[in-house]
Amino acid sequence: MNFLGKAHQLEQLFFSQDLRKYGLFAGYLAAFAAIASATYYLPDYYWLEYVTAYNSEFVLKFLGIPAVVRFTPTGILLNEFVVDKPCTGIQVVATFAGILLPLPKLSWSRKVLGLLLVTAGVYLANIVRIVIQLWVYYARLFDWTAIHGPGGVALGIISVTLLVVLLDRFVPEFGDFVFSILKR
Fold first, then answer.
1. For residues 109-137, b (16+ Cβ closer than 10 Å) or e, as one string?
2. Which of 105, 96, 88, 3 is nearest to 43 (CA)?
3. Do the Cβ atoms of 120 and 113 come closer than 8 Å?
4. Which residue, 117, 104, 108, is CA-closest to 169?
């Protein structure tokens, strides 16, 4: 089949669908983008960076690993490492907020429950991630580039997967929504 034939098939498929569905989907995507972007870019997360560094320091000391949080002109340091906005996991919370808040047919109490679970889960996962990365680095199992880059990505994927499972357990409408998208 030539290009024009395929284009005609796509045109037929598009116009045979209920155009309202496309409008609802476009509205949902716009709400997702607005909520996620506003959550991530508007607030100053200096306080969250500090709390993340402080609690990571607490856990490291509990495990017998020397740790100290310092304030410098370049930011908050945990030992010699900067704890900045990406270290807080706020991008994951912003993404989940963008997904959850515009979900249709989900009560606000369920949305708030979902956001609280995600926020607490992300916060704890990031403390664990930071502690694991520093422990592995100080134990000289890997250099910082290996544990912070690929190691951070691997730990991030594991924690997001666990968050999706947790959220599906307590807010099953979230899982229903995700699986309805995957089926299409």
1. ebbeebbebbbebbbebbbebbbebbebb
2. 88
3. no
4. 117
Could you give the residue ranges of the DSSP H alpha helices within the chain? 3-15, 19-41, 46-62, 85-88, 90-100, 108-138, 144-148, 150-170, 172-183
Q: What is the pTM of this model?
A: 0.78
Residue 63 tokens, joined: 């495990």
pLDDT tens for the chain, 184 residues long, are 676 676 666 666 556 556 566 666 777 788 888 988 898 888 889 999 999 999 999 999 999 999 999 998 888 999 999 999 988 989 989 988 998 888 887 889 988 998 999 999 999 989 999 999 999 999 999 888 888 888 888 888 888 888 888 888 888 887 777 677 666 5
Task: Look up residue 29 and give its two tokens.
Answer: 């995507």
